[in-house]
Amino acid sequence: MIKTVIIEDEKPASRKLERMLSNFPDIEVVTKIESVEEGVAWFSENEHPQLIFSDIVLGDGLSFDIFEKIPTKGFIIYTTAFDQYTLKAFKLNSIDYLLKPILEEDLSGAIEKFKSFLPSNNDIGSQDIKQLIRKEKSILSRVLVKIGYNLKIVQTQEISCFFSENKIVYLQTDDRSYPSDFTLDELAEILDEKKFFRVNRQFIINSDYIKNIHTSPYYKVDLEFQPQEEITVSRDRVKDFKDWLVS
Questions:
Q1: Which of 54, 69, 129, 226 ranks highest by number of CB atoms within 10 Å?
Q2: pTM across the whole model
Q3: Residue 206 domain boundaries
């Protein structure tokens, strides 16, 4: 049997996932955890399971906090309503990332993917998990931003650019800019490279919003929506920028 733990603070979602997992006769849910505090305690005192299904945003923090305090050799399949945490998830033993509501076919595919990583004796502790996980590039499709006490979902297709200012990275839309939790280095890893390009240390731009490109005396880009500061292309990025425009 494949020992499994569910980390989820919403009881209906936890029960639904457990019911879905009951359709897999070789999977046994050994416990359900509802908070970071409970997770740290449980993983400190119990043998770690082979497979973990974990929501990311819990009532008392992010589930990442559990595995940063108590490293696990188990494989993690994250389940969440938002995909802004993909980069960090894949740094913490994640083999898949399921967006809610979870579909049966997506769950089945994630479990089959997990099984493909298992050695013949099912002993994951005998191998280096980092070598087993074939990292797949996850493309960010939406970003969760905070506005006062409210949350807003912004689709990346609505973002003309990301830019850094006073050590904070903002995203620009048609109506305003919003602060994000990303760094530009992180965004460069998870944005669609066909649409987004990092023109310099401060800006990542979306090709869909390019209005004009000046080439003299230096490359400068005008976007349909942008902050007041001008957007220039670093000299060492000009060739890559031109290649990207026609790719």
A1: 54
A2: 0.55
A3: 126-246
